[in-house]
Specification:
mainly alpha, single chain
Length: about 90
């Protein structure tokens, strides 16, 4: 079950229907991009570090803020794949 305080970071999803495992890359991406400390603490408690690292190494195309991806890459000691075909950054 995903807590209600995560809802602002998954605004287009019904928390009752979202699958924590099936949608983990979306959940991880949104929380790392937009989440509060409370939300990121929940994320780290609910997903393995390797799952979080995977979402950073292979970012969803067009979904990451450049600064967020850089920060979390440092925190988790990984480097996102440089995929020239698919840009992973959004423009805010």
């Amino acid at each position: 079950m995903i807590p209600k305080y995560i809802a602002p970071f998954l605004w287009s999803y019904d928390l009752k229907k979202i699958d924590k495992e099936k949608n983990k890359k979306r959940i991880i991406t949104n929380i790392l991009n937009f989440g509060t400390k409370k939300a990121t603490d929940w994320l780290i408690d609910n997903y393995k570090k390797d799952e979080i690292r995977e979402a950073i190494i292979n970012p969803l195309p067009g979904e990451w803020d450049r600064k967020s991806l850089n920060l979390w890459s440092i925190v988790f000691s990984v480097k996102p794949k440089d995929n020239k075909k698919e840009k992973c950054f959004t423009t805010f």
